[in-house]
Every structure is written in structure tokens, then in C-alpha cells.
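Fold this sequence, please.
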Amino acid sequence: MLPCLKSETVRIGDALVCSFAGDMILDGDQVAARVLDAAFDERPALVAVDLAGVELFTSTGLNLLLIARRRAVAEHVPFVLVAPSERTLRVLELTDTTGLFSVYATAEDALRHHPRHVPPM
């Protein structure tokens, strides 16, 4: 059976952008948890989670983001969301968790708001 969630992590300077595509449901929770744990284990200056490719976002996805946010707060690492779909934003609104996350339209916007994380040109 193919995984329902695919991921890719890209380093930009001392920031990490973790991109997900597919469904953030129970079957994909181990994939996402491993990716986010590995990102925090690297002690980056910023973790950005790109949700542009996420088609289905359930309570499993929300719980993963909340766990990652808790770790980010504990380790003093800025943690932001990038390009969540309207459906994903709706889940955040319905659960009254929207205010817990900084949200940016693109990874470039997120990095621009954390300029020390962008490598010099």
C-alpha cells in the first residue's frame, strides 16, 4: 500500500522547510511525525511547514501540528505554517487554534519575516 502522505525537507540557510503532500490522516501520522522530529533534531533556527500539497487535513494533522508547536515553544524555535488550503484553515478555525500559528502564503514570505535564516547572496 502506498503512503497517503509524502514529504520533502529542504534546508534554506539555517531554516528547514518541511513540505507535505497528500492526506494528513491517521495512516500518514508516522510519516509526518518522523519528518518533524528529524527537523527539530537538527536544531534549526526556523521550521516552516508547507501544507500547500495537503488535500485532506483531519484531527490527526491538527494534533501533529500542535505537538510540533509544543516542541517548538519548548526549544525556542520559530514554527510557522505555509500555504495551508482553505480546508486546512477551516479545521484550524473550527478548533479555535488558528491563533496558535503564524501563517504565510509562501515559504519565501516566511523566510522574509525571519531574515536571519536566509543565506547571504
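The radius of gyration is 13 Å. The domain at 5-117 is CATH 3.30.750.24 (Transcription Regulator spoIIAA).
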